[in-house]
Design goal:
The complex is a heterodimer of chains A (about 350) and B (about 270). Chain A is of the alpha+beta class and about 350 residues long. Chain A is elongated, with a radius of gyration of 24 Å. Chain B is mostly helical and about 270 residues long. The chains are: A alpha+beta (about 350), B mainly alpha (about 270). The interface between A and B is medium-sized, with 32 and 23 residues.
């Protein structure tokens, strides 16, 4: 188990403030946040690479706050692989073995097994210079896991990879985590990665943790406007609550549940905002007449901006839906939102 | 129709300046090398004084490089890796010997090595003499050569991603283990280049050495002495031999420091 208590790191122009985290043994935990949020700093503090200004860090009950990096029993995998360029694949993987007191047979077997699992046996004698990105990242994983660390720290391990390798390594990570007892702590800015890999996640922004919880819960029920936007809820508005009625900038909506308090925010996923040309009635839906402002091609789908009153909603449409509807800018449409799709906090 | 390719005037400016610079450097040197007769060169090569001075030049420059390597390497590593208050000041201090006029370096070192200075008194008590000794020459050459070593090796260390060292530490290697298994194997070429730079600077030193130790004579001092006592004709053969020996040595070191096309690379 990793326990971080009131971790504080002060750097010129940036402060990581009072980070409290508790990660279970064997968990796949992700630290999510935009670039510059301070998530890599948390990782490096656990690894003992950056000096910390306050707080304590425990791994399996052992206070490692002031231990040098070589005595922490952790493994690191970086986005740029950080392989030793002067060593072969096998030499890279076995680099740390001499510092760990396992008998050579056990560690030898472990390395062999890891190399098999990661498909590296045929590459053992190769120089790392001519490996593909995916191969490099597999070597980097094997090297970190060869010493049987209790915690594996992954610093954006997929970011530098081409899309096809990214998928490959994502699968590799998932399988490795299922097979091993190691705790995985991964830093990423990509929510989709966290959703695929992570069990729980912490959203970090400007050196502060915004929310901690199971990934699917954070995805469905963000607790701050930042988290809501970060998990892809493009419709986040300040709101006034009155029971289950919500007032957003003069627009009244009906939600499913009663809200405590008078003020807060509402967040709606763009895929839950329906655009209809025909009249929509019944079922207690929120229906607003509006006008299409903008249609943006996002590759697999189109993003529609539609305005009703003073409020602009973002919605998603597939290409075929868009064509079928013959939708174009300035067209009048109905904006439909189910009460159950409105999340308020 | 043949389309004539128009050449930019800048191309001709570049050609002109390149040939001027190359000629400016090579012409006097080549002339100096071909002016002495074969007989003069042969005689100089047989002269024990000439041989001794060239050997002393190489030996003292080599010692200066060795000392720079031993004390300069950890220092360069510190400068490359750590931020500390006053770092800029320390870096400027390292560069001072490059800027100070050479005789001033000799005078400054004599100033603290003489009997009137407490350090000089201590040194004499333990039997270290600077004035007119090989120790003195090595001291002066280290003073002028060290900045070249430190700056070169510092850049070499900076070019190694700190993440490699972090990973090594996380895998269980101590700071020392990491240095010898990761940093050194990746930085030794820059150390060799640093040694070449330091040696080159040390071998060419004259002004500071002549103040601290006219005797024993290093090659530049001997060349100067022969020039003032007997004229150009007698100083040239010594100069030629010094150039030949130094160029050979530097070429060898330079070849060693070039990255090899490793077999593994193609693997």
């Amino acid at each position: 188990m990793i326990n971080i208590e009131s971790l504080r790191i002060e750097l010129p122009g940036f402060t990581l403030q009072d980070i409290d985290l508790s990660i279970q043994d064997g968990e796949f935990f992700t630290l999510l946040g935009p670039t510059g949020a301070g998530k890599t700093l948390v990782l490096e503090a656990i690894a003992g690479i950056v000096p910390i200004s306050g707080g304590r860090i425990f791994i399996k009950g052992r206070d490692i706050t002031h231990l040098p990096p070589d005595q922490r029993g952790i493994g690191i995998v970086y986005q740029d692989y950080a392989l030793f360029p002067h060593l072969s694949v096998l030499e890279n993987i076995t680099y740390g073995l001499r510092y760990h007191k396992a008998d050579p047979q056990t560690s030898g077997k472990r390395v062999k097994k890891l190399m098999g699992q990661l498909g590296l046996r045929a590459l053992a004698q190769r120089s790392i210079q001519h490996l593909s990105g995916g191969e490099k990242q597999r070597v980097s994983l094997a090297r970190a896991l060869a010493v049987n660390p209790s915690v594996l720290l992954l610093d954006e391990p997929l970011s530098a990879l081409d899309p096809n390798f990214r998928e490959e390594i994502r699968e590799v990570l998932k399988k490795l985590h299922q097979r091993l007892e190691t705790t995985f702590l991964m830093v990423t800015h990509d929510f989709a990665e966290a959703l695929f890999l992570g069990q729980r996640t912490a959203i970090i922004n400007r050196g502060i943790i915004e929310q901690i919880g199971p990934v699917s819960e954070v995805f469905r029920k963000p607790l701050t406007p930042f988290t809501a936007k970060f998990v892809g809820m493009k419709n986040v508005f300040p709101a006034i609550f009155n029971g289950s009625r919500i007032l957003v900038d003069g627009l009244e909506m009906q939600a499913e549940t009663m809200f405590k308090g008078d003020e807060g925010y509402v967040a709606i996923r763009p895929e839950d905002v329906l655009i209809r040309q025909e009249a929509v009635t019944g079922n207690g839906f929120n229906v607003f007449g509006g006008k299409v402002l903008d249609i943006t091609d996002r590759g697999p789908y189109y993003e529609i901006s539609a305005k009703t009153g003073k409020v602009i909603f973002k919605a998603m449409l597939t290409k075929s839906d868009l064509l079928e509807m013959g939708l174009s800018e300035t067209k009048n449409v109905n904006i439909v939102i189910r009460p159950s799709d409105i999340h308020a906090f | 129709m043949i389309i004539k390719k128009r050449i930019d005037p800048f191309f001709w400016i570049a050609v002109f300046s390149t040939s001027t610079v190359v000629a400016f450097i090579l012409f006097p040197l080549v002339e100096m090398v071909i002016q002495p007769s074969f007989q003069d060169l042969k005689e100089a090569a047989k002269d024990p004084d000439v041989l001794r001075s060239i050997w002393l030049s190489i030996y003292t420059a080599g010692m200066a490089a060795l000392i720079s390597f031993i004390i300069g390497t950890p220092f360069a590593y510190l400068l490359a890796r750590k931020e500390f208050p006053g770092k800029k000041l320390v870096e400027s201090i390292v560069d001072l010997p490059i800027m100070i006029p050479h005789p001033v370096v000799g005078i400054a070192i004599l100033g603290i090595a003489g009997q009137n200075h407490w350090l000089g008194q201590i040194m004499q008590q333990v039997g270290i003499h600077i004035m007119g000794t090989v120790t003195g020459i090595v001291t002066v050459l280290t003073f002028v050569g060290l900045p070249f070593y430190v700056n070169t090796v510092k850049s070499g260390f900076e070019a190694i991603p700190v993440r490699l060292e972090n990973v090594s530490r996380s895998l269980g290697a101590s700071l020392t283990g990491t240095f010898f298994r990761v940093t050194f194997p990746l930085a030794w070429r820059s150390m060799l280049v640093g040694i070449i730079m330091c040696c080159a600077r040390a071998i060419s030193e004259f002004g500071a050495v002549v103040i601290v130790a006219y005797h024993p004579m290093i090659a530049p001092v001997m060349i100067y002495e022969r020039f003032t006592a007997y004229g150009l004709k007698y100083s040239q053969p010594v100069a030629v031999w010094l150039i030949v020996v130094c160029l050979t040595l530097f070429l060898l070191l330079r070849i060693l420091s070039l990255p090899k096309e490793s077999k593994a690379k193609r693997g």
